[in-house]
Design goal:
about 20% helix, 4 helices, binds zinc ion, about 180 residues, 5-stranded mixed β-sheet, Metallo-beta-lactamase, Chain A, alpha/beta, 7-stranded mixed β-sheet
C-alpha cells in the first residue's frame, strides 16, 4: 500500500486492523509502531533497505510487539519513545518529551504529547514540504481512539492540539 509518493511512506497492513508505516528515504527506513516484525524484515530485505529508527507512539502490544526482533536484526537502530514510558517501553534508547524536535533522516520531527488513549501517548509530526502526522491510536478516520488511561478532557485537549497544527499538513496516519 503506497501512500504518498512525494514522501515515500508505505503502509503494511498487519493483524486485524493495524498498519505499520515505513518512511523510506534513499536506502534508510523509519518504522512507526511495529506490532510485528516479520513483514517489516521481509519488506526491507526485498528492497535492500536498512532500518534506522523505530518511532513508538505508546506502549500497547499491537504497537511495540515487533520491536525487540527488529532490534536483534538491526542492533544500532534508534528506538524513540516517551521518557515517561521507560518501564512499559524499556528498549527505548532515545527518550523524548513534549515539544522536542529531533532530526531523523535529515528532517525535522516534532514530538507532540496527545494524552487520552494512554497517559503518555505521543505523536510524531514530520514537518517540511509534505507534512505528515503519525498519530498512533489517538485519532482514526471514524473518530478518536478509545480512552483507556487518560480523561475525556485530556483527549479533547489532544484533539484541539492536532487541530491547531499548521493547516497545510495533508496527512494524518494512525497505526
Ligand atoms: Zn493503543
Amino acid at each position: 500500500m503506497e501512500f504518498n509518493k512525494a514522501r515515500n511512506i508505505i503502509g503494511l497492513r498487519v493483524l486485524s486492523d493495524n498498519v505499520i508505516w515505513l518512511w523510506v528515504k534513499d536506502k534508510s527506513v523509519v518504522v512507526v509502531d511495529p506490532s510485528v516484525h516479520t513483514p517489516v524484515i521481509r519488506y526491507l530485505d526485498e528492497n535492500n533497505l536498512h532500518l534506522k529508527a523505530i518511532l513508538q507512539t505508546h506502549h500497547h502490544s499491537d504497537h511495540i510487539g515487533g520491536t525487540k526482533s527488529l532490534i536483534e536484526r538491526w542492533p544500532n537502530v534508534k528506538v524513540i519513545a516517551s521518557s515517561k514510558e521507560k518501564k512499559r517501553i524499556p528498549f527505548q534508547n532515545v527518550s523524548v518529551e513534549d515539544g522536542e524536535t529531533l532530526n531523523i533522516l535529515g528532517e525535522e520531527v516534532k514530538i507532540i504529547e496527545v494524552l487520552g488513549h494512554t497517559s503518555s501517548h505521543i505523536a510524531f509530526f514530520l514537518n517540511g514540504k509534505n507534512p505528515v502526522l503519525f498519530i498512533g491510536d489517538t485519532l482514526f478516520s471514524g473518530g478518536c481512539g478509545r480512552i483507556f488511561e487518560g480523561t475525556y478532557q485530556q483527549m479533547y485537549s489532544s484533539l484541539e492540539r492536532i487541530k491547531s497544527l499548521p493547516k497545510k499538513y495533508s496527512h494524518i496516519l494512525c497505526t
